[in-house]
Amino acid sequence: MVMTNNTNTTNNTQTTATAPAPAASASAASTAPRLNFAKAAPKAFKALIGFDAAARDGLDPALVELIQIRASLLNGCAYCLHMHTSDARKAGEDEARLHMIGVWREARNFFTEKEQAALALTESVTLVSQGGIPDDVYVEATRHFDEPELARVLALIFTINTWNRIALSTAKVAGEDERVAD
Question: pTM for the full model?
Answer without folding.
Answer: 0.80
